[in-house]
Design brief:
heterodimer; A: six-stranded mixed sheet; five-stranded antiparallel sheet; B: mainly beta; seven-stranded mixed sheet; four-stranded antiparallel sheet; 11 strands
């Protein structure tokens, strides 16, 4: 069964303390891995798409990487405004249009 | 504002009532998704439209749920005979025809069933 698992469920960091969030997946034929940021009471905001193992993308303090079984979202020197839930999702397996989301990592960055 | 819009933003209803939500995608986005999200969970796929055609509907969706996208523009999601378990955030997302997969989400409609 296609599945996405994110860890940790929650993470508290001090401002400037770098860390990584993990997204592991089992899917038949990966058609893209997506990272989103979601603030409370709002819809997810697109961050990155990765398609091939070894691919990396960066945006400000965030860097996403992809292997054949998992993806990491690295947060370098985070700031309080980076506090949010980070969701990952995998693109639709063959024969379906259904994206599969993980349950997210709730990140809190303390000043 | 050129983003995805959803109305209403909040809906409180009594069990057994029918509710309808609207989603206006970004102009020229021909692909549209509906999701349901409960507290502490990721978005759960409900249904997918390409233009006006509904191409997939989740098996988890009971026959109380129906969605339409007339003329391939805005979309509506209706829930009939609401139950307390329907309480959730309902999200809409749209995708450009030239984009492989990037979904742009609306702010969601928060449904509370009393």
């Amino acid at each position: 069964e296609d599945q996405v698992t994110q860890s940790p469920e929650a993470l508290r960091l001090q401002e400037g303390e770098s860390s990584s969030l993990n997204c592991s997946y089992t899917v038949s034929g990966l058609r893209g891995l997506f990272w989103y940021r979601q603030d409370p009471g709002k819809g997810p905001e697109f961050l990155f798409t990765l398609y091939s193992a070894g691919e990396e993308k960066e945006k400000e303090r965030l860097k996403a990487t992809l292997t054949k079984k998992e993806s990491f979202l690295h947060i370098t020197a985070p700031k309080p405004e980076d506090s949010a839930t980070y969701l990952c999702a995998v693109g639709p397996p063959s024969g379906t249009y259904k994206y599969i989301f993980g349950t997210g990592t709730r990140l809190k960055v303390l000043a | 504002d050129t983003g995805v819009s959803q109305n209403p933003r909040h809906k409180i209803t009594k069990r057994g009532q029918n509710v309808t939500f609207r989603c206006d995608p970004i102009s020229e986005h021909n692909r549209l998704y509906w999701y349901r999200q409960t507290l502490g969970q990721g978005p759960e796929f409900l249904t997918y439209f390409q233009n006006e055609a509904q191409l997939e509907k989740s098996r988890l969706l009971s026959d109380r749920f129906s969605a339409e996208r007339p003329k391939g523009s805005f979309s509506t999601l209706e829930i009939q005979r609401t139950e307390q378990g329907d309480s959730a955030m309902y999200l809409c997302a749209s995708v450009l025809p030239t984009s492989r997969d990037t979904q742009y989400f609306g702010p969601g409609t928060r449904l509370t069933v009393l």
